[in-house]
Automatic annotation (TrEMBL):
InterPro entries: FAD-dep_OxRdtase, FAD/NAD-bd_sf. PANTHER family: FAD-DEPENDENT OXIDOREDUCTASE FAMILY PROTEIN, SARCOSINE DEHYDROGENASE-RELATED. Pfam families: DAO (PF01266). Residues 25-414 form the FAD dependent oxidoreductase domain. This is FAD dependent oxidoreductase domain-containing protein. Gene3D superfamilies: D-Amino Acid Oxidase, subunit A, domain 2 (3.30.9.10), FAD/NAD(P)-binding domain (3.50.50.60).
Length: 431
């Protein structure tokens, strides 16, 4: 493997001092669920003869995009209670990454299953999905019956059982809810920072034992175009979420629709009795309640289709309208929500993929052709010289980044390492 000359950017080659030959420099753009997962999985392929050096680029830092703003809800089912495409694989891989992250940030005395008990990376509360229409309730029943044979413990609950699970829940006696007891909610920022820490620890250990040259470097840098990275890397993996659409090489070429979401951080005021029960599951009914601790929860999320505002900041106007919408949606099911106080806001931009008969599937594959076609006219000479850089895309994670990031991140990393697109499901090449 030829080691590419160091580009205009200081990276692995520049910071590593004496480089063992054969280092494979790979740039991953975007430090959200997709990018950090790909970085972790790439590093797992490091060897003594071909050590991996991953440079992770993010203009904000780890978890600065949609991932950090998300509700962190994780379960493998669609709204009808059916397993998602690769749902079982995605679920297992996500749990594995959570445990990797938990180990990395573990502190000797206070470690729970997923990180410290004081600042947990995730909560195992389960999710209760409420049927908004009778039709959905019937779907729940059908799918629970179909799933009865697998080891999933999903259950269809009537109104009284649901109310027992979530004190204060308003659901008619004849209502139905889908209970997913194994579902969890992660603290997205903590989880991502811990997973990146795992990457750093892993590479440090590998480089000081049998794979010198292995590195994981975070670069706070805004990538303006793919062209500027040309020649410096063996491969570049674009994991920029909705902002992948802004790269000049990809603009108007990806079948993605952006959708901004705003989430309220709520806190139970002092003196509020019957705060959300410590064992009660999160709620999902289109809008969702993700409980983060004794007195904290997230209430989200709005959907502003077509917005390209990726800012995590929420101004007063946006906050007022979001709060009204979220409260109106939630109060019929859980009236006490009105007593909770707004502590803060978070927001991000989803990259929504097209809908297919298998549901909304992420985008993944090689984008060499897109990158090349964007540069015919003027750049052809340069492209010839840099034909060895391979370009990849992993995105379009929509509203379900967590269920897809682990398994697919692993597949993408393999495709990158073996320079073989056939290792990725063909249906994900949706451009
Ligand atoms: C409000 C909200 C709630 C959600 N709730 C859930 C949930 O409960 N469960 C779930 O599974 N999913 C949820 N999602 C969806 C989930 O957040 C996304 O699917 C996921 O975050 C996408 O991850 P990503 O890594 O592809 O993109 P992102 O997380 O957006 O990461 C892209 C990164 O690229 C960086 N970046 C962008 N442009 C550049 C550039 N030019 N140069 C350098 N860096 C750049 C950004 O700073 C960002 O960190 C939610 C989404 C939103 C918006
Ligand atoms: C790429 O992967 C596919 C699927 O595993 C395999 O059949 C094929 O031989 C691989 N191609 C190369 C060039 O390694």
């Amino acid at each position: 493997m030829a080691t590419a000359a160091a580009g205009p950017l200081l990276g692995c080659a520049a910071t590593g001092g004496l480089q063992p030959s054969g280092v494979r420099r790979i740039a991953v753009l975007g430090a959200g669920f997709a990018g950090v997962s790909v970085a972790w999985h790439l590093l797992q392929h490091t060897t003594s003869s071909a050590p991996i050096c991953v440079e992770l680029f993010d203009e904000v830092g780890v978890g600065g995009g949609a991932s950090g703003a998300s509700g962190g809800l994780l379960h493998p089912y669609n709204p009808k209670g059916k397993l998602l495409w690769k749902g079982a694989e995605g679920w297992n891989a996500a749990l594995k990454l959570l445990s990797v992250a938990g180990t990395a940030c573990s502190d000797t005395s206070t470690t729970g299953e997923f990180g410290s008990t004081i600042a947990p990376l995730a909560w195992k509360r389960g999710i209760l999905r409420l049927a908004k229409q009778q039709k959905h309730a019937l779907d729940f029943q059908k799918n629970v019956n179909n799933a009865a044979s697998d080891e999933s413990k999903i259950a269809c609950l009537g109104g009284p059982a649901a109310r027992e699970l979530v004190p204060g829940l308003e659901i008619p006696a004849e209502g139905l809810a889908l209970y997913i007891p194994q579902a969890i909610n992660v603290h997205p920022q903590r989880y991502l920072k811990a997973l990146w820490l795992a990457c750093e620890l892993f590479s440090r250990k590998a480089s000081t034992t049998d794979c010198p040259g292995t590195q994981a470097v975070l670069r706070n840098y805004r990538v303006g175009s793919l062209t500027e990275l040309k020649g410096s890397y063996e491969a570049v993996v674009v994991c920029l979420g909705a902002q992948a659409m802004l790269l000049p090489e990809l603009v108007d070429k990806l079948p993605l629709t952006s959708c901004r979401g705003v989430v309220a951080q709520l806190q139970a005021p002092r003196g509020l009795r019957n705060v959300y029960d410590s064992q009660a599951p999160n709620l999902l009914f289109g809008t969702w309640v993700a409980v983060q601790g004794e007195r904290d929860l997230l209430l989200g999320a709005t959907k502003d289709w077509g917005s390209m505002n990726a800012s995590p900041n929420v101004d007063n106007t946006e906050a007022t309208s979001a709060l009204e919408k979220l409260m109106d949606e939630t109060a019929p099911f859980y009236p006490s929500i009105k007593k909770w106080k707004v502590k803060g806001w978070q927001a991000g931009l989803r990259a929504m993929p097209p809908r297919s008969s298998l549901g909304s599937l992420p985008l993944a594959g090689c984008i060499d052709e897109l990158v090349r076609s964007s540069q015919l006219g003027g750049y052809s000479e340069q492209i010839k010289n840099t034909a060895s850089t391979k370009w990849w895309l992993f995105g379009g994670l929509g509203s379900r980044g967590l269920i897809h990031h682990g398994w697919l991140g692993d597949q993408v990393a393999k495709a990158v390492i073996y320079r073989n697109e056939s290792l990725l499901p063909q249906i994900l090449k949706q451009w």
